[in-house]
Amino acid sequence: MLCLVEVADIVKEGSTPSVDDDDGDIELVKRRKGLADRYDALPAYGSVAYWKEIEACVEEALPLELLVRCVREAMGREDDIGRKRLFEVIFRRTHSANEYWANNVIKTMNLRVEEQSVLVGDLYADLCECVMRALIDRDRLFWEESFQHCLSFERRHVFRTFMTREGRWNSEAKKKTARIPRALVDSLDQPRQQSTGDLIEVHIEDETAQRDLLAVEHSDLPRLILDLPDKLKAVVLLIFWEGRTEKDTAMVLGITDRTVRNRLRDALEILRHKLEPEREVLYG
Amino acid sequence: MGREREEIVQRITARYVEEVRSGRRPDMSDYLSLYPQYADEIADFVAYYHAFEVGLPFETHSMPVLSGQFQGAINTAWERVLSSPRQTGGTIISLLETAAKRHVTASQLAERLGLSVDILAKLEQHAINAATIPMELITLLAKILYEPSSAVQEFFGIAQRPQMLQVAEAQALYQVDKVEKVGGQAQSFREAIQDSEQLSEEQRQAWYTLLEHQGL
Q1: Per-residue model confidence as pLDDT tens digits over A98-149
Q2: Which residue, A23, A107, A232, A267, shows the most beta carbons closer than 10 Å to its own?
Q3: pLDDT at res. B146
Q4: Cβ-count burial of B161 within 10 angstroms (0-12 exposed, 13-18 middle, 19+ buried)?
Q5: What are phi and psi for residue B51, nearest 5 degrees?
Q6: In this predicted model, what pLDDT tens digit does every residue of A207-238 receive, in sequence order?
């Protein structure tokens, strides 16, 4: 496992314009010390006073990072009951966000209401399981420093796994599985019947996709981009999210203009399929 | 993504998220040009973050009563975790390295144990007879290092001790298997306390009291 000091060094190698590294480091050290002190000051493990503090519903409730340490202590003591009780506290405190997230994810799947409800429960259970596994893994130290960010990462992981399992993740791996319902996308490449009864081949140029992409609401762009293979995301984000030129993008990523253009072409080819239904709605 | 790589990306993107949360609009290109080797992962997270995470409610300090559906989901998850092989915790190879992983330096560890660095060094080098180490120290080490007491005991090469030793109970003999004494014979914990030039008088007295109480 990589020592966190090494990780911090790697992260420190450069600095972002709006983050003062020295201040950031001092803050980090202070925060770590604060957490360690607060943890040490907890009443004896398992005592009434201990649980009173853990389950306190006050403004100064224990930071979630501290509860991670408590879970790990419960692990060390092989106290399953205590561990479950701690998990309950953590999930109740993060419930609003987790529920909101699960509903949001499921909404993107265009399902019937009753199906949505079942899948929200499944997704929520998957998330809880992943979080529990992460919390009992002592090597995952960043949970003890930045719980919310780790939770975001876990939700992303669960989102991707869930969408793949449900056949909704647009990746190379997905295309190889039999479960992927590609009917809708495939239909875009099928000849279409016009109102006159004539069959026509629909071929959408990348320029069209590019125009459509520019017409997409800025805030919807990340959701579209999520389905792209990882290698293509940065290029599309830089050009369409940040408004960079191809040349700028090439410089930022340390690749050639030609590679940028190739990646953009590949991305647009994929997005063409996604945007087609929206284009039809927009332009008829 | 491997564990180490993921942790690095988490730390980088945590800064990005912090900027967003503080109301700034960070340029992703700044992050990508600083960490081109993680560009794909950063872009993936940023896309996901703006798609699903921005605007999520923050954690609450309240403890809402969960509906049957969500309570059931937690129970399902718990059952799945319980039914998988148990994680019993790692093996401690070095007290100091384990502490360093948790950003605790040798002097900080010594301070939190109520010991001095010279005694800590002896413990690290197995230069103290494990059978003479008080249980409180093992428990405290386990707590600071977030390791099971059994792992700390194993480090010292002693068999599992009962948690509560009655005062009148005779001292148990513990097999010392792993003693790798530095510079000859291992001394007792009491002798180490006595010999230490760095321990304060107050700390020394506190340990003597404890050792007396335990008959060590």
Answers
A1: 999 999 999 887 778 888 888 899 999 999 999 999 999 888 989 999 999 9
A2: A267
A3: 79
A4: middle
A5: -80, -40
A6: 555 565 555 556 677 888 888 888 899 998 99
Burial per residue of B67-81, b for 16 or more beta-carbon CB atoms within 10 angstroms, e otherwise: eeebeebbebbbeeb
The residue ranges of DSSP E strands in B120-208, in sequence order, are: none
Write down the residue that tokens 């039809």 correspond to: A280
Short-list B11, B4, B17, B52, CA closest to B35 = B11
Q: Is A272 helix (H, G, I), strand (E, B) or coil?
A: helix
- Report yes or no: B26 and B19 within 8 Å, Cβ to Cβ: yes
Residues 211-230 of A with CB under 8 A from B: 219, 221-223, 225-226, 230
Residue with tokens 């008080």: B134
HEC string for A49-97: HHHHHHCCCCCCCCCHHHHHHHHHHHHHCCCHHHHHHHHHHHHHHCHHH
Q: What is the spatial distance between Cα B29 and Cα A46, in angstroms, rounded to a whole number?
A: 48
Alpha-carbon span B20 to B11, nearest angstrom: 15
- When pLDDT is averaged across residues B130-140 and rounded to a whole number, the result is 89
Across the interface, of A8, A55, A101, the residue whose CB is closest to B56 is: A101
Give the 3-state secondary structure of residue A199.
Answer: strand
Question: First vs last Cα of chain B: how many Å apart?
Answer: 50
Note whether B47 contacts A61, CB cutoff 8 Å. no
Token pair for residue A217? Answer: 């609401």
> ∠B163-B165-B167 over CA atoms, to 5°?
160
State the burial class of residue B83 (Cβ atoms within 10 Å of its Cβ: 0-12, 13-18, 19+): exposed
CA distances from B34 to A118, A190, B30, B31, B63 (A): 43, 44, 6, 5, 41
Q: How far apart are CA A239 and CA A228, in angstroms?
A: 15
Min Cα–Cα distance to chain B from A195, Å: 38
Scan for tokens 């020295």, then name that residue: A22
Query: Which contacts (CB < 8 Å, 24+ apart) does range A15-24 have?
Result: A15/B34, A16/B15, A16/B19, A16/B26, A16/B30, A16/B31, A16/B34, A17/B30, A18/B19, A18/B24, A18/B26, A19/B15, A19/B18, A19/B19, A24/B15
Length of chain A: 284
∠A171-A173-A174 over CA atoms, to 5°?
A: 65
Its ipTM equals: 0.74
Cβ–Cβ < 8 Å for B32, A238? yes
Whether A170 contacts chain B with CB within 8 A = no
How many contacts does A have with B, using Cβ atoms within 8 A?
A: 241
**Exposed, middle or buried: residue B193 (CB in 10 Å: 0-12, 13-18, 19+)?**
buried
Determine the pLDDT at residue A275. Answer: 67
B15 vs A19: CB contact, 8 Å cut-off?
yes
